[in-house]
Specification:
The complex is a heterotrimer. Chain A is α/β, with parallel strands linked by helices. Chain A has eleven helices and ten strands. Chain C has a domain of 179 residues: Rossmann fold. In chain C, strand 9 and strand 10 form a beta hairpin. The chains are: A alpha/beta, B mainly alpha, C alpha/beta. Chain B: InterPro entries: BPD_transp_1_N (IPR045621), MetI-like (IPR000515), MetI-like_sf (IPR035906).
Chain lengths: 273, 329, 266
Amino acid sequence: MSDDVLLRVRDLTKRFTTRGPYRRRNEFTAVDGVSFDVRLGETLAVVGESGCGKSTSARIVARLMEPTSGTLEFDGEDITHAAGARLARYRAKVQVVFQDPFSSLNPRHTVERILMAPLDYQGIAPKGGRRAYTRELMERVGLNPDHAHRYPAQFSGGQAQRIGIARALAVDPKLVICDEAVSALDVSVQAQIIELLRRLQRESGFSYIFIAHDLAVVRQLAQRVAVMNKGRIVEQGPCDEVFKAPEDPYTRTLLAAIPRINPEWDRRRRAAR
Amino acid sequence: MARYVAGRLAGLVVLLLLVCVFTYLIFFKLSPDPALMICGKTCTPDRVAQIRASLGLDRPFLTQLGDYLSGLVAGRDYGSGPNLVHCPAPCLGYSFQSSQSVTQMIVDRLPVSATVAVGAAVLWLIVGIAAGLLSAVKEGSWWDRAAMGLALGGASIPNYVLALTLQYVLVVKLQILPFPSAVPFSEDPLLWFQSYLMPWLVLATGYACLYARLTRANVIDTLAQNFMRTARSKGLSPALTMRRHALRPALTPIVTIFGMDFAALLGGALITETVFGLNGIGKMAADSIAKNDQPVIMAVTLLAAFFVMAGNVVVDLLYTGLDPRVRVS
Amino acid sequence: MSELLVVEDLTVTFPTTRGPVDVVKDVSFTVGRNETVGIVGESGSGKSMTSLAVMGLLPPGATTKGSIRLDGVELLGRPDRELRRVRGEQASMIFQDPLSSLNPYYTVGLQIEEMYRAHRRCSRKEARRVVVEALTQVGIPEPERRAGYYPHQFSGGQRQRVMIAMALVCSPALLIADEPTTALDVTVQAQILTLLAGLQRDSGTGMVFVTHDLAVISSIATRVLVMCRGEQVEYGEAEQVFAAPRHDYTRMLLESIPRIDDEVVL
C-alpha cells in the first residue's frame, strides 16, 4: 500500500438493534468487518444484491451514519469519530450522489441555491461570484446554464441527476460516493450519465466509490470492484480479473445471473454497421 | 402474546401510579388550602387546624400520598370520633362538600356518561363512515363535494353552540323533545331515548364530520394501492373487491382513532353534559371545579387518565389482531 | 398458427388539462399460443398502458380505439361485467412490485383461493387443494403451511412466485407480465425467468412480457415490440430486432446497454 491511498477503511462493522414486539431484541449485522482502500483518482465499485450492506457502508464512509466499530482514514487522518470543524472539512472533500435525484434535491430551491448550498455550508465564497460559478458547474455537467433559476421539478430525471452531480462537484471534492446514482434511470439516459461521470473524473481527477447492484454498469466505470454478500466483502480486485475469472462462488453466481443479449445477434448487428 | 399483554398491563399500572402522584402534587400542594375552603367565613385558626387534622393535611406530603394510595387499595377512614367516616376500597377520596365518597359519586354518574358516549359513538361511526365511504367511491361527485363541505363546517361548530341551538329549536320552539333528564332505561324507554337523543346528536356531529373526512381519505388512498389493481385483474366482483380488499385496510387505522376518542369520552363530556344538565362525570367535573371540591377534581382527572391509557392498550391489542404485519411471525 | 391475442391499431387517450394525449398510438401485435412477445421501451413509452388496455384495467377517464381480440373475441368496448369473466380466467397479469400488489391483510392462500373461486364453482376444500398445487408448481417449499402466511412473511422472489401461482391458478390462455423482475435482485430475476419459461413450456400459455430491459427480453421473447413515446417503433422476430434493427431508436437502445462481457477502455 503506497501513499496514493486516499481512503482507508478497516474492519468496518455496523450492527443494528431493533426491538421487536414482546420486547425481544433483534440484532442484525449489516456490515461485517469490511476493509478496502480507495486510491487517488480511481473508481472503486462496491456491488451486491439488496441488503448486502453496500449502501450502509457508503453511508458510514460519508459519515452519515456511525459505525459500530472499525476505522476510516482519509488522506492519512483518522476521521472515524471526527466532529465539528474536522468533520466539516472532511465533508467538503467527500460528496454523495444519491439514487433518486428528485427526493434528494429540495423542490423549493432553485438550481443555483441547490448548487451553492454546499459552499454556503462550508462558508466558502464561490469563485467568480455565485452566478458565474453556478453557470460554470451547470456547463460542466451538460446542463443549460440559463436554467439556473428553475426548480428541480422542471427537469427530467437525467437532468435532475446532473444537478445532483453538479452539487457534489461544487466544493471540488476528492472523493465522490455514487450510491446507485444511475439505477433509476432509463438505459439511454444511464449511458449518458455514465459517460459524464467518466469525463468529470478525467477532468478533475477525484476518486469514486460507486455503489451499484448492476455489474454491467460497474464494468463501464470502475477499475476495481468489491463484491459484497451478507455484510462481507467476498471478493475484491481489479475489474478485469474479478469479472473474467471470479474466484468466489457467490461472485460466479452473480455474474452468471446477469441477463445477456444473445452474443451472436450482438456480433451480427455490430458487423452490419 | 400473554407476555405482551402482561407487560402492557404492568406498564399501565406504573403509568397510573405516576399520574396519581403528579395530580396529587398539583391538587393538594399547589391549590388553595381545602381546610380554609371548608371552614368558610366564620373561621378561627383553631378550627382550621382542627379541619386540617381531620383531613390528615397536617401530616407530611408523602404520608398523605401514602394514605391516598392505600385508600385506593384498602379503603380508609376520615376524621375521628363521631365525625368518623369510612371510605371503602377503592377509595378515591371523600367529598366533604357533598358528604359522599368520591367512588360512590363516580359509580352513580358513570352510567350516564357511558350512555352518552356509547350512543354518540354508534351514531358517529355509522354516519361518519357511511358518508366517508360514499364520498370516496364517488370521489369528485356532487355528493362528495356537498358532504365534505358539510363535514368541514360541522367539525368547526363548537359543541355548546350546537347544544344550545338544538335545545332551543327542538325543546323550546318545536317542543318535539322533552328537556333531557337522564331517565333510566328501565323506567321509560321512550323518555330515556328522547332525553339522550340531543346529547348524542351534539357529540356525534363533530366526530361524524371528522370520521367522514378520515374515512374518505383512507378509502381513496387504499383504492389507489397496487393490490386493488391486482384484485381487479383477478376478475373479482366489484362488491367483493370493495368489501374484502378495500375496507379492511382503509378502516383499520380508524379503529385506533376511535378507541382513543371513545376512551376520552368515557371520562365525561363536560360541555354537553353541563348544557343538558345530565348528571354524568363531565358535569360532576364542572361542578367540582366550580366548588373547588379537590378530591372530586382529582378523581375525575385520574379517571380520565385511566380511560385514555386503558383505551391505548386496548387499541394496541386490537391492532395486533387486525393488521397481520404487526403480529409476530 | 392460430393467434391467441390480436391487437390492431390500439390507441389509448388520456384527458389532461392541456387536452387529450395519446399515451399509446396505433400499436399492433399478435401473440400466438405458447409464444412470448416482449414489449420493450423506456419510461413513458406506453408499454404498461398497452398491457393494461389488454386487461381492461386502464385508469378511469382513458379512452381506447382499435381492436383487441382474445381468442377471436373482441374485448374493447365490452362492459366491465363481461370483462371480469375474461380477467383471471382467460388472461391474467403479474406486476412489478409483488409486495404492494398483494393485499397485506390476507394470507396468500386466501388471495389465490378467491381468484379460483371467482371463476370456478367448487368447495373451499377443493379450492384449497388447488392453491397448494399452484404453490407447489411455482416452487414454494412447504406449500400447505405457507398458504397460511401473509405476503410480508415471504422474500421478494417468493412473493413474485406467489403472484405467478395466483395468475396461473385458472390456467389462463394469456399471461401478461408487466416488469415482473425489475424490482428483484439479478440472481432472483434469473430464477423467476427460468420459472416463467418452464411454466409456459408446460402449459402452452401465451405471454406478453413488458420490460425496459432488452437483455431480459432477448432471453425470453420470440418476438419483440419496441415502443417509444406511445408509438410502435419496431416489431419483429427477436433475432431480427436484435441482430438487424431497422430503426435508429432500437439501435440506440441496444448500444446504450452496458455490457458485462465487453472489454472496456477506461
